[in-house]
TrEMBL record:
Key words, A-Z: Cell cycle, Cyclin
Sequence ranges assigned to domain Cyclin C-terminal in this UniProt record: 85-183
GO MF term set: cyclin-dependent protein serine/threonine kinase regulator activity
Record protein name field: Cyclin-H
Length: 219
């Protein structure tokens, strides 16, 4: 699945749970539905049979889950399905660097660390706070720094030249904010912590079902 499609699916998933509770809807079911919907929206042509072929477990159940949840997901997204990912902006930056910044011999060497940075940023809520182009720019700057290159003059002269009237200090704050969020994303919980969270969720769901049953008996 292309990175752009993965990014769209993840944003769908996050937006869904901005409005809904994980105790009400199974996150795995929402995620697989979001991934299939993203394939459609991003025009990554794959049939539902081909899609579920890569899913472990009962294929028929997976198809039923996707089809029964797809309209719910679209409705909870308020029918706003177009997602602007930072991946397209990155391509623009790499092309512009190649054409207008000869100091960087081969911008393509930045691609791998850029994608790593974007994968880390995707685990955060950066997509709700910053624009795709800002996230892409942070990825380019961070990747250039890690590879021992410097694109400061490209950013200040080419992107933020005086004719654009940008407040450079604000841009710096934005870039640093994104870099900080991406760095924090690397501190993922270990397997035992995740198991504990899942067990607590299962326990809470069971209690909710028991309360529902008790209330129904007295109605």
């Amino acid at each position: 699945m292309p990175k752009n499609t993965q990014g769209t699916a993840l944003i769908y998933f996050k937006r869904f749970f901005l409005r809904n509770c994980i105790l009400q809807y199974e996150p795995k079911d929402v995620l697989v539905t979001a991934a299939f919907l993203a394939c459609k929206v991003e025009e990554f042509n794959v049939s539902i049979d081909q899609f579920v072929a890569n899913i472990q477990g009962n294929k028929e159940r997976a198809i039923h889950t996707i089809l029964s949840n797809e309209l719910l997901l679209i409705r909870e997204l308020r029918f706003h399905l177009t997602i602007h990912n930072p991946y397209r902006s990155v391509e623009g930056f790499l092309i512009d660097l190649k054409v207008n910044f000869p100091e960087l011999a081969d911008p393509q060497t930045l691609r791998e660390p850029i994608e790593r940075f974007l994968s880390e940023a995707a685990l955060t809520n950066a997509c709700f706070i910053y624009s795709p182009s800002q996230i892409a720019l942070a990825a380019v700057i961070q990747s250039a720094m890690k590879s021992g290159s410097h694109v400061d003059s490209y950013v200040t002269n080419r992107l933020l030249g005086p004719e654009y009237h940008f407040d450079i200090s604000q841009i710096v704050d934005v870039i640093n904010g994104i870099r900080y969020m991406a760095k924090r994303a690397s501190d993922l919980p270990d397997a035992s912590t995740v198991r504990g969270i899942l067990e607590k969720m299962a326990h809470d769901k069971e209690q909710i079902e028991q309360l529902k049953s008790s209330r129904q008996r007295y109605l």
